[in-house]
Structures are given as structure tokens and as C-alpha cells.
From TrEMBL:
SMART domains with a match to the protein in the record: PASTA
Any Pfam family matching the protein: Transpeptidase
Annotated signal sequence range: none
Family, as annotated: Belongs to the transpeptidase family.
Entry's localization field: Membrane
Protein name: Penicillin-binding protein 2B
Superkingdom of the source species: Bacteria
PASTA domain boundaries: 596-656
Spans traversing the lipid bilayer: 12-31
Length: 733
């Protein structure tokens, strides 16, 4: 008996629905495989965007170092503080991961951050209900490691410290208007970068800024790297290293001297520059007021490097170039006489600082006394227009071309005869300190004028390639070597002569040649010049040793508060003598009266027995110091081929435990070399030469045990020069 067939409409409908879906899905898969696209987008791109991850490799901003490689500015590790407020952060955790006690947290943070407790409480409470975390702005950035550890010891929940970088200036107030500063800035896309805002940090911002790298990798939905996934690494490129011509030790001598003079006299302005006249290298440069580049404390509305970007009327320091021109033109006869006191040109009369004059005196005495009238008669002899031509040969009236921005050109006034006359003794026309330094190199360097510069070289630390290597550059020969030598002798006589205005600038053991200046200051109201005791710009442009100058120094003090009986040259001489004496001794320039020791070339002792090396070094007049227990020498310092004078220390590194030497009298550089070779924890306090050490000679210590080494500058070690000469304030003197 046949069963009657019954059509199942329900099953048929399910077949149609699911069969249709199957064929639709099957067709979709075929389409995607054939075209590689879905919803108009490439599937590979969608997968990449879902699973690709990118990690940024931060580049370090380039370092700035002195000519010996000592650090001036660099990036260093710092931390950024974040306070977690949301309770959601603690879900699933056995201990709280958000702030639970706002009062206590604020009280602790107020001890370590530059914020009051109430301000911190306000920051943590005046937020929207859904706020997850807050930061503390500038106060919560650039936190050092010690502060982070101190806060963590309090075990406060909800505080996170994110690793960051900050610009580090280890020397504090140190050539701040030259170096400038860099700080973090946030762009429109909320990317935070370090940007140079002033000085070299701004000028060379592009060179100092590195390029961030990145790591690309595939990850799962939770962000973990997938097995066998390939990493694509683009290495970060750190910024270039800029090596300056500055010498950190000489710069510190300058900063210390400026601090003392500023504290004692409270002048409106102090400027100082030290240069090597043989090369034009600027060894030190600073000004007051100054500021700390890390905190910007002391920074005023003035952002100018005044040695380069502003001009002054130089006063009588200009007279060295007037006399140089007269000598070159064969119009200088030091034994000829003139009537001092005053000189009239048409309807204008110029006067000496001693209005009645000194009667008839020789031109030599007139120069030593800084007579303005003597310059007027010299202009008569050589012609005032000829003199202006010499000023231009000396580089006045145009930029020196120093590798710093916004250099001012100065201005030579030569339209009228009276302008040419006043220019001869430093009034009316304007100059920059750099122009004066450049011109003076011709006097110090036998007639060869050298271009000043501050960048020694720029190096790419990623490749070791030298990007820029500055060499000394001649700027002309305005006078002959014979003339330059004669001018130096005249300059020395201003210090040694009984009539000289520069007697206070004498050094103990070194001959000094230089010229004082007391320039009038234009009245801000535009009406004439300021007047009154101390209301002048006092200066000294000097070189030493006078017979063969190794250093050229120019110092300026404006409107110091002088005590009763003091004159303008007092604060200037305290600056100049301190900087010059310390620097010459630091450079091992032999004082006059001492025998000049010819240097000896040191031999190569590596691989030799230390006992034999000690005997040979002592025979050559050196002082050998063993690092280790003795035996075969694997490293020596200074290296073979170096020229050393008698009494120089030679370090010989061997294997074994090291016993401490007597560091007394060692230079900072040699102590640092010993520290590097020995690996000992030597902690230096001060600059100059070693006077004390915390552990005695022969002590055997481990690498982790610190040894404190105290150093003092020569000015602290040697007695200062007695100054008992009295002068009167002299305009142009």
C-alpha cells in the first residue's frame, strides 16, 4: 500500500533561506578571494590596521660640550606625574590603584612639587565625574629620579610616573645668554617636543633635534605581539653634538668673578669675553644679569647676547687702534710734546679728563694718561680720513661674521670732522664687543686679525661623521707685525708707568698690556649724556703675557655702585685680574722670572713592565702613577707621542687592586682621567687643582666606595695682587 506524498512547506522554506544564505556567503568569499576587497576596502589594509602596532623610539636631542668634551647641555631622564582618580582603575585589583586620600596625597606632593597643597587639592577635586586621570602641568614635568623615589616611598596609591626626557644644564648659570635654553612644547596634534627658545639652543635647533624612530609589529586583539611576527625597526637618529670653543674651566673663572663683582657693586650691566688671539676662538663669554637655563630664574625681558647683538660707545679702549694707525703711518713720535688740557676744532672744544691738563707732556705720557687731546693732535698728523680708513681695516662698522645670530654692525660716524675726532677717543661711534675683540687680535697677533668664532665642530653621533669643522680664519692685516709689537709695548706701559691708568690691572708674575676706558652713557631721554660719580661705562681691554699674548680679555662694568673713595676701575680690575690670573695658570703659561721648560715627548710603555717604566719616566722628569698592582702596562695616559713638561703626571694602568695616590696639585682633567682608567668612584667638588681628598694616599678601596676630591681655583690658592693705586674717575680714561 503506497504512502501518500505530503509536501513539507516549512522544510522547503528553510532550505530556500539557508541555501540562499549559503550560496550568498559562498559567492561573497569567491568575490573577496578574486578581488581582495570588502566594502570597497582592501582586506590586507583592514587587517594591517587592526593588528599592526607601532612603538615610538625617542631620539635624544644633541649634546653641547666645551672644547675638552665636558658637558654643557644634554637630554637626561626625567619623569612626568599622573594622578589616577577613577575607581575603575582598581577593579579586579586587591589593592587600590587610584587616589583614595586626596588630602594626604596633596600634603605629600606639596613637599616635592612647586605647588601649594591647596592648589593640588583643587587640581584633584575640581574635575568632571567621569575624569579618569589628571596631570599637574609644568609642575608635574621634569621630575628627577631622586624625587620620584622619595614620593614612591610614601606608598601613595594612584600616582604614576611616566619616563620622559628633559634638557639638563649641569653648570647652572653658565654662559646662559650664549647657550640659551630649550623647553618642551606641545603642537596642535598634542605631540610634545623639545624646542630651542634662545641662544645656541634656538640657532641650532634643527641640528640638535634628532629624528624619532619606530618599531612596527603585528599583534593580537590585546596588543601582544603575534608569534613569528616580523618587527620592522626604524632606528632613532639622535641630534648632532655641538662642540664649542668655550673652555669650561675658564668660563667658570669668569662666572665666579662676575658673581663677586655683581654682589659687591650691583652694576646695571657686566659684560666679559676671553679669546685666544692666535685663533679667534672664544674661550669664555658671559653677562650680568644672567639666568639659570634649567629654571629660567633671573631671565628678564632682555633676551640678547649683548656681546654680539648690542653696541656701545667704547671710550678710551679705542685709543690703541688710533695709535696703531699713527705708528703705521709713521706719524707717532713718542718723545714729541703737545699742550694737554683742551683742543678746539672750529667751534667745538674737547677736553682731557683733567680739564686743566698736565701742561706740555710727551705723546707717550699722553697715551699713558689716556689724554683725549693727544689723540686730536695725532689725527692732525695722519689725517682724520686716513684714520677712518684704518678703523675700517680693523673691521669696525661691519659685522665680524661670528657664528652667532643677530650680530649688530655698529656705526662709524665720519660725516663731519668733529665726529672723526671724537671717534678717535671712543665717543660717538658705536661698536660691539666682538668687533673690539677681533680688532685687538691684530695687536696681539703681530698684525694678523682673526675672525672670532664659538662653534669648534658639529658631529653626527649616529655615524661619527664631522658635519662642520671650523678652522681659524684670517680677517686681514690692518697693521704690520712691527707696529703691533710697538703698540703692545705702549699698552704694557699703561700698567707699569707711574702715569698709567692701568696700574690696577697688573698681575703677579705676568706682564699685562691693555687700555682702560671710561665712556659716557647716552641719556635715555635723548638729551646728552648721563653724569655723576659712577654713572659711566668702565672697561679694560687687555692681553697677557704682553710680549706674546696667549689670552685676550675685554671686561665692561656699567654704572656700578661705588663706595666712598672707590673709582670705576676698581670693579673692572677685580674682574680682569681674577679671570686672567686664574686662566693663565690653568693653561700652564709660565710666569715671567721662571725658567721655561722645554717639553719632552713621552714614549710608548704599553706592554712593558711597570717597574722599568717607572725608572725611565722618573729619569725623564715625569711623575708616574700606577693604577693597579703593577706588572704589564695595558694603558698609559697621556698617550705615546704627547709632549709633556717636567713634573707632569703619567698614568700607567695595570691589572689588580688600586691604591689611592696623593692627588694634591693634580688638575681636574688629570683626576678625571684617573677616574676613567681606575673605575673608582671619585667625586669632584670644585674646579682648578686638588687641595684635599677624603681618603689618604695608599688606601685600598672597592669600586663602590666614594672618594671626595676637593679642588680650588688658583685665585683661592694664590694670594691676590695688592692694589693701592689711587686714581680719579676719568671720562675716556
Amino acid at each position: 500500500m503506497k504512502k501518500k506524498f505530503r509536501f513539507q512547506w516549512g522544510a522547503f522554506l528553510m532550505f530556500l533561506v539557508y541555501g540562499g544564505l549559503f550560496f550568498l556567503l559562498f559567492g561573497r568569499i569567491l568575490f573577496i578571494q578574486a578581488t581582495g576587497q570588502a566594502e570597497g576596502k582592501v582586506m590586507a589594509t583592514l587587517a594591517e590596521s587592526k593588528y599592526a602596532r607601532e612603538s615610538v623610539l625617542k631620539a635624544d636631542r644633541g649634546t653641547i660640550v666645551d672644547r675638552n668634551g665636558e658637558l654643557i647641555a644634554s637630554d637626561t631622564l626625567s619623569y612626568r606625574l599622573i594622578a589616577v582618580l577613577s575607581k575603575d582603575a582598581s577593579k579586579g585589583s586587591k589593592k587600590p590603584l587610584h587616589i583614595t586620600d586626596i588630602e594626604k596625597t596633596a600634603e605629600v606632593l606639596a613637599e616635592y612639587l612647586p605647588l601649594e597643597k591647596d592648589a593640588i587639592v583643587s587640581r584633584l577635586t575640581n574635575v568632571k565625574a567621569e575624569t579618569y586621570q589628571v596631570e599637574f602641568g609644568k609642575a608635574g614635568r621634569d621630575i628627577n629620579h631622586e624625587t620620584v623615589m622619595a614620593i614612591k616611598k610614601q606608598k601613595l596609591p594612584g600616582l604614576l610616573f611616566i619616563e620622559d626626557q628633559t634638557r639638563y644644564y649641569p653648570n647652572g648659570v653658565f654662559a646662559s645668554y650664549l647657550i640659551g635654553f630649550a623647553m618642551k612644547e606641545e603642537d596642535s596634534e598634542r605631540n610634545v617636543t623639545t624646542v630651542g627658545k634662545m641662544g645656541l639652543e634656538k640657532t641650532y635647533n634643527k641640528e640638535l633635534n634628532g629624528t624619532d624612530g619606530k618599531v612596527d609589529f603585528k599583534s593580537d586583539g590585546f596588543g601582544f605581539m603575534l608569534p613569528k611576527a616580523e618587527e620592522a625597526i626604524v632606528a632613532a637618529k639622535d641630534g648632532y653634538e655641538i662642540q664649542l670653543t668655550l673652555d669650561k674651566t675658564i668660563q667658570n673663572f669668569m662666572e665666579d668673578a662676575m658673581n663677586r663683582v655683581e654682589s659687591e657693586y650691583s652694576p646695571k650691566k657686566i659684560l666679559a669675553v676671553v679669546a685666544d688671539p692666535k685663533t679667534g676662538k672664544i674661550l669664555a663669554m658671559s653677562q650680568r644679569p644672567a639666568f639659570h637655563p634649567s629654571t629660567r630664574e633671573g631671565l628678564t625681558e632682555n633676551w640678547l647676547n649683548q656681546a654680539v647683538e648690542t653696541t656701545i660707545e667704547p671710550g678710551s679702549t679705542t685709543k690703541m687702534f688710533t695709535v696703531a694707525a699713527a705708528i703705521e703711518e709713521k706719524k707717532w713720535v713718542p718723545t714729541d710734546f703737545f699742550k694737554s688740557g683742551q683742543y678746539t676744532l672750529y667751534d667745538r672744544t674737547i677736553r682731557d679728563h683733567n680739564i686743566t691738563g698736565w701742561g706740555y707732556i710727551s705723546f707717550l705720557e699722553g697715551f699713558q694718561r689716556s689724554s683725549n687731546v693727544s689723540m686730536a693732535y695725532l689725527l692732525e698728523r695722519m689725517g682724520d680720513k686716513t684714520y677712518i680708513e684704518y678703523l675700517r681695516k680693523f673691521g669696525f662698522g661691519e659685522k665680524t661674521g661670528i657664528d652667532l645670530p643677530n650680530e649688530a654692525p655698529g656705526r662709524i660716524l665720519d660725516t663731519y670732522p668733529i665726529e672723526r675726532l671724537t671717534t678717535a677717543f671712543g665717543q660717538g661711534s658705536t661698536v660691539t664687543l666682538m668687533q673690539m675683540m677681533q680688532a685687538a687680535t691684530a695687536i696681539a697677533n703681530d698684525g694678523v686679525m682673526m675672525k672670532p668664532y664659538v662653534i669648534d665642530k658639529i658631529t653626527d653621533p649616529n655615524t661619527g661623521k664631522i658635519i662642520k669643522d671650523q678652522k681659524p680664519e684670517e680677517q686681514g692685516r690692518p697693521v704690520s707685525a712691527k707696529t703691533a709689537k710697538e703698540v703692545r709695548e705702549l699698552l704694557a706701559s699703561t700698567v707699569t708707568s707711574k702715569y698709567g691708568t692701568g696700574k690696577k690691572f697688573a698681575l703677579n708674575g705676568y706682564t699685562v698690556g691693555g687700555k682702560t676706558g671710561t665712556a659716557e652713557i647716552p641719556n635715555p631721554s635723548g638729551n646728552g649724556y648721563l653724569a655723576g660719580h659712577g654713572n659711566y661705562l668702565y672697561s679694560f681691554l687687555g692681553m697677557a703675557p704682553a710680549e706674546d699674548p696667549q689670552l685676550l680679555t675685554y671686561v665692561i662694568v656699567q654704572q656700578p655702585k661705588l663706595k666712598a673713595g672707590e673709582i670705576g676701575s676698581d670693579p673692572v680690575s677685580k674682574l680682569f685680574t681674577s679671570i686672567m690670573d686664574n686662566s693663565l695658570r690653568y693653561m700652564n703659561i709660565v710666569p715671567s722670572g721662571e725658567d721655561i721648560v722645554e717639553p719632552t715627548v713621552i714614549s710608548d710603555y704599553t706592554g712593558k713592565d711597570s717597574a722599568d717604566a717607572i725608572v725611565k719616566l722618573q729619569e725623564d722628569g715625569f711623575v708616574p702613577e700606577i693604577i693597579g698592582e703593577g706588572g704589564e702596562i695595558d694603558i698609559q695616559y697621556p698617550y705615546a707621542g704627547t709632549k709633556l713638561v717636567e713634573g707632569s703626571v703619567v698614568l700607567l694602568h695595570t691589572k689588580g687592586v688600586t691604591a689611592l695616590p696623593d692627588f694634591t696639585g693634580w688638575s681636574k682633567k688629570m683626576v678625571l682621567s684617573y677616574k676613567m682608567l681606575s673605575g673608582l668612584d671619585l667625586r669632584l667638588n670644585g674646579d682648578g687643582y686638588v687641595t684635599e681628598q677624603s681618603l689618604s694616599k695608599g688606601s685600598v678601596i672597592g669600586l663602590e666606595e666614594p672618594v671626595v676630591i676637593k679642588l680650588q681655583s688658583p685665585s683661592e690658592i694664590y694670594k691676590p695682587v695688592e692694589e693701592d693705586t689711587e686714581e680719579e674717575d676719568v671720562v675716556g680714561g
